[in-house]
Amino acid sequence: MSFSRKIIIVMFVLAMITCAPAKASTIEHCLRLKFYPPPPPPQAVLGHRSRFDLSRIVCRDVLRAVGHSIRSSGKLPWRYLGALCNIFEDNEQKIEGYIKDTYKARDLDRLIDGRSCAIIRKKLHPISPLSLPRQ
User: Fold this and answer.
1) Interatomic CA distance for residues 55 and 118, integer angstroms
2) HEC readout, 26-53
């Protein structure tokens, strides 16, 4: 294989990795960082903080995508609600309180669109035909 082919393959693989859609775990990770920020590292206290923080950049983009989804559809995305269900351990009152506080929602029912954690889990993790019991 020639050198130029190797470079093309590497570029293709890198493009595929960076274009991967955000998973629920990414959204959940970003929300957990927002709720429970980690303590600053010792270098940050001394003023030697790195300006490049990949986690912060990814989280900003993920939450920006959530905001765009809300503006375009008027509803919260399924994976965002699924992450909230995981973080708040399926407590509907805590989820509704967070959504009211965060989005200043006058129309909470429109944002949630009647979706509970049970409905979200069923939608995000459907039962495959292979896992159904045989009759």
Assistant:
1) 30
2) HHHHHHHHHHCCCCCCHHHHHCCCCCCC
pLDDT above 70 for 78: yes
Between 35 and 43, name the one with better pLDDT.
35
pLDDT at 88: 92
Contact 110, 96 (CB under 8 A): no
| Angle subtended by helix axes 54-73 and 24-35, to nearest 10 | 110
Q: Tell me the two tokens of residue 86.
A: 């995981």
- Rounded to 10°, the helix 78-87/117-124 angle is 120
**Is residue 27's pLDDT more than 80?**
yes
Give the end-to-end CA distance of the chain in Å, rounded to a whole number.
53
